[in-house]
Amino acid sequence: MAGEGMAEQLEIDEHLVTLLAPVSYEAEKYRTLAHTIELTQKDFGLHVLAVTSPTAGDGKTTTAINLAGTLAQAPEARVLLVCMDLRKPSLTEYLGIADTHTVGLVNVIVDPARTLNQAVQHFKRFNLSVLPAGPCPADPYEVLKSHRLGELIQEARQHYDYVVVDTPPVLLVPDTRLIGKWVDGFLMVVAAHKTPRRLVEEALNLMDPSKLVGLVFNSDDRQNRDYYYYYYAPGRPGTHQRQSWWRRLSNMLGLPVKV
Description:
Distance between the termini: 44 Å
């Protein structure tokens, strides 16, 4: 996208395997996830994908960055990674972006004179564009409720093949439900052996089933690896298929069956 600034980069977090070790075993799991997303885009027009979790510490930000990094590996790909966790933004920390760049999503929302171009940074090394959160607002909910956010996402749709959004945890704040009307689908990240099943159930109950693309199980050690990801994707099913999918998911997680 013309006008993007180059990111001043410091040290990248070691867990961003698709950026630091793209041919590793761990990165291959994200490649499998990205392939599923690409198929879903082809079949259902999945361009704007939000990544969330039931609560903090489940690995949603790491998953969002690694997924975006994988999607951006094709030379012709145009991928934008957006931070919409305005309460505790961490994209810049993970990516090692210098704090001297203060313009981000918040600035573009509250000041219509600013353009998306002015806030987006580009990592040429990874072929990845990033829209940081910007300064933490006094009232994140009101900022995300702005119609301006919808305009910006629509603009991003026109310039990028994929827009991957890092959102706040579903159960901690209502922000993610606001964001839901602007995105095509959600990935729910669950920390294996850590996230309580009741919290997974509560989070799923708060989400629109038609927007739930799948679950990512983070840090599953069944293959004796630190970062093994399992992806279960229902696609965009109808009512009957959603009920069947929920039954299978409930059995897998040990949750009560919901129809």
